[in-house]
């Protein structure tokens, strides 16, 4: 369950500040003065001076730089303990403020801060960046409310990009070299990635740029098939500005919302353009950890029956996606054995073609439920959505306008900059009031849409903590819909709605509800989500590994995702997941950890209990 809000927003009223800072404020001078003290104190390990620069109600998020983990320290007590433990040992130095990043921002009339970025070094191994925000004080001074410290690169192990690319000409050898590299006939990869969709491809690309030998194993015949084989109506609900992949952004003529089949082809091209090593039509059947050698034995089988057992894999990354990692979550109702129609889970659904003149019932009102109901409706089917609980709905256009904060737009900053700014807002800060305000703004922009749904009887939610979709996404990936067309079909009655009673049982011809009503159905689709991410670990690994492995997905008390891109409690075991944006950003953080382990730089993590 997501952690509850801790502190309210640092509004002017909460801070005891009467007037908002003027637009012509000399923000650069304020930041320079603050930053000079901060940088000097950080280099000399002076914790007391640093904590005096922060509010008591503060947040410091660290991504690997000082902790080799993803941690958020909330409040001055936790911050002080963290700095006492880690500041001197981290040997921070070479702080440099980026003057062009300093900006006075006023997201709401009663909320103002100065945002700035900086670079620094960690000991003799790390190049890092930071983002801070200062808020005004009643005495005219400024203190930090939020801070991000983020490991960017390893000093002596730069990514093979730009000046570090291969500069040697290659006359006629490239094809044979690639065949040899992909075959792994006389060698084993350092890293084996299970799954060849965006998560597997992006982390493999990051590892390749860090010169870590990596092989992707994909069970389907082609890279991209996991998108190619999903329901034909599937289209990304994230705009293209949010969904770029590392090193190879989408071209400028790419549509704003990407059809699944188009994305599938792009992923296939990405794997080849980035020269990633992958085996398709190949399934991992077992992964066993050897405690003595600290390596993995991994058995893979090709569809032609050919088997290969790798004996000395150092790292296994599960990049199996939401659906493949989890078992479908299907509610059990009495009488299903007597039902004469067809039942299927959303993961099994492909297309509405072939269901002409069928009565369709879709159970579930989150994204998949809307998409599938709309697909059946567009094919002329009598379609009913069964809504089991209130759902958060926002339009894609207005949702991204507000929630994106201007970061991911046609004219927004480079995606690498946007990612870091987005990561600099700790979850615990956002649920303290920022998300709630955004929801109110979006609801006003979507007023006509939401009013139309309410008139149809659709049950709307503002989300957990009235904070919109994010808390539910980070808890269980459900409970919301970003509208790309299905909402209008509900409003105009083309998709029927049933939500006035809970399902009691199946009948031979459909569903019976607890109020005695019945619903005829030739086909019942369960758009009811998935189970536990750890299922795939239990399926492929031995019992000791499965028991030791930490929980995957859901938020810890600090507001960080559990088990994703970070230590799982079993050496060399990783879980790479997320949509295109999360995968783009955190794939590098995962790759940096693996490279640091291989080079002997990462030997322990900061273990202060959340």
In brief:
GO terms for molecular function: flavin adenine dinucleotide binding; N,N-dimethylaniline monooxygenase activity; NADP binding. With 610 residues, the protein is an alpha/beta fold.
Note down, in words, how this protein is organized.
By secondary structure, the protein is an alpha/beta fold. It has 3 domains: 12-154, Nuclear Transport Factor 2, Chain: A, CATH 3.10.450; 178-325 and 532-598, FAD/NAD(P)-binding domain (3-Layer(bba) Sandwich), CATH 3.50.50; 336-526, FAD/NAD(P)-binding domain (3-Layer(bba) Sandwich). The strands form 6 sheets. The protein has a 6-stranded mixed sheet with strand order 2-1-6-5-4-3, with helices on both faces. A hairpin with a 2-residue loop joins strand 3 (92-108) and strand 4 (111-122). The longest helix is centred in the C-terminal third of the chain and has 19 residues, at 427-445. It is globular. The mean pLDDT is 94. This is FAD/NAD(P)-binding domain-containing protein. Keywords: FAD, Flavoprotein, Oxidoreductase. It comes from Dendrothele bispora (strain CBS 962.96). One of its GO terms (molecular function) is flavin adenine dinucleotide binding.
């Amino acid at each position: 369950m997501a952690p509850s809000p801790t502190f309210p927003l640092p509004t002017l009223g909460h801070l005891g500040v009467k007037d908002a800072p003027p637009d012509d404020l000399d923000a650069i001078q304020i930041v320079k003065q603050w930053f000079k003290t901060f940088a000097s104190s950080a280099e000399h390990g002076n914790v007391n001076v640093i904590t005096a620069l922060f509010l008591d109600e503060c947040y410091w998020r660290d991504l690997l730089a000082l902790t080799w983990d993803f941690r958020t320290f909330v409040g001055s007590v936790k911050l002080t303990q963290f700095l006492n433990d880690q500041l001197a040992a981290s040997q921070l130095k070479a702080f440099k403020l980026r003057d062009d990043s300093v900006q006075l921002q006023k997201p709401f009339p009663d909320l103002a801060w100065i945002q700035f970025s900086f670079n620094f070094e960690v000991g003799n191994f790390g190049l890092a960046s930071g983002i801070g925000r200062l808020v005004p004080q009643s005495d005219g001074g400024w203190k930090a409310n939020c801070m991000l410290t983020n490991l960017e690169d390893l000093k002596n192990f730069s990514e093979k990009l730009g000046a570090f690319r291969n500069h040697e000409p290659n006359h006629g050898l490239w094809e044979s070299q690639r065949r040899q590299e992909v075959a792994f006939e006389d060698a084993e990869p350092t890293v084996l990635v299970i799954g060849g969709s965006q998560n597997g491809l992006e982390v493999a690309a990051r590892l390749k740029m860090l010169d870590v030998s990596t092989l992707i194993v994909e069970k389907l015949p082609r890279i991209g098939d996991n998108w190619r084989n999903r329901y034909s109506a599937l289209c990304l609900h994230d705009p293209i500005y949010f969904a770029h992949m590392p090193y190879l952004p989408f071209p400028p003529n790419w549509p704003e919302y990407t059809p699944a089949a188009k994305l599938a082809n792009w992923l296939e091209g990405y794997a080849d353009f980035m020269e990633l090593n992958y085996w398709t039509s190949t399934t991992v059947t077992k992964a066993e950890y050897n405690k003595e050698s600290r390596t993995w034995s991994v058995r893979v089988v090709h569809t032609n029956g050919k088997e290969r057992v790798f004996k000395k894999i150092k790292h296994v990354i599960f990049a199996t996606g939401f659906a493949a990692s989890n078992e479908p979550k299907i509610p059990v109702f009495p009488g299903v054995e007597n039902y004469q129609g067809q039942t299927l889970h959303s993961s099994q659904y492909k297309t509405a073609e072939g269901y002409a003149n069928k009565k369709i019932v879709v159970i579930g009102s989150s994204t998949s439920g809307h998409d599938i109901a709309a697909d059946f409706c567009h094919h002329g089917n009598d379609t009913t959505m069964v809504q089991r609980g209130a759902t958060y709905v926002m339009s894609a256009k207005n949702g991204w306008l507000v929630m994106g904060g201007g970061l991911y737009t046609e004219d927004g900053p480079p995606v690498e900059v946007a990612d870091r700014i987005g990561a600099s807002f700790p979850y615990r800060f956002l649920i303290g009031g920022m998300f709630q305000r955004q929801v109110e703004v979006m609801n006003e922009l979507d007023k006509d849409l939401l009013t139309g749904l309410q008139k149809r009887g659709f049950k709307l939610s503002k989300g957990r903590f009235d904070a919109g979709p994010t808390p539910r996404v980070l808890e269980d990936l459900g409970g919301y819909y970003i509208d790309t067309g299905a909402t209008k079909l509900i409003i105009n009655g083309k998709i029927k709605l049933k939500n006035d009673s809970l399902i009691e049982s199946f009948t031979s011809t459909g569903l019976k509800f607890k109020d005695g009503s019945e619903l005829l159905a030739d086909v019942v689709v369960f758009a009811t989500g998935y189970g536990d991410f750890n299922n795939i670990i239990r399926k492929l690994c031995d019992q000791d590994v499965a028991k030791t492995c930490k929980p995957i997905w859901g938020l810890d008390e600090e507001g960080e995702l559990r088990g994703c891109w970070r230590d799982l409690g079993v050496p060399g075991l990783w879980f790479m997941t997320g949509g295109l944006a999360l995968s783009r950003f955190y794939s590098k953080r995962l790759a940096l950890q693996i490279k640091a382990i291989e080079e002997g730089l990462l030997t322990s993590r900061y273990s202060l209990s959340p």
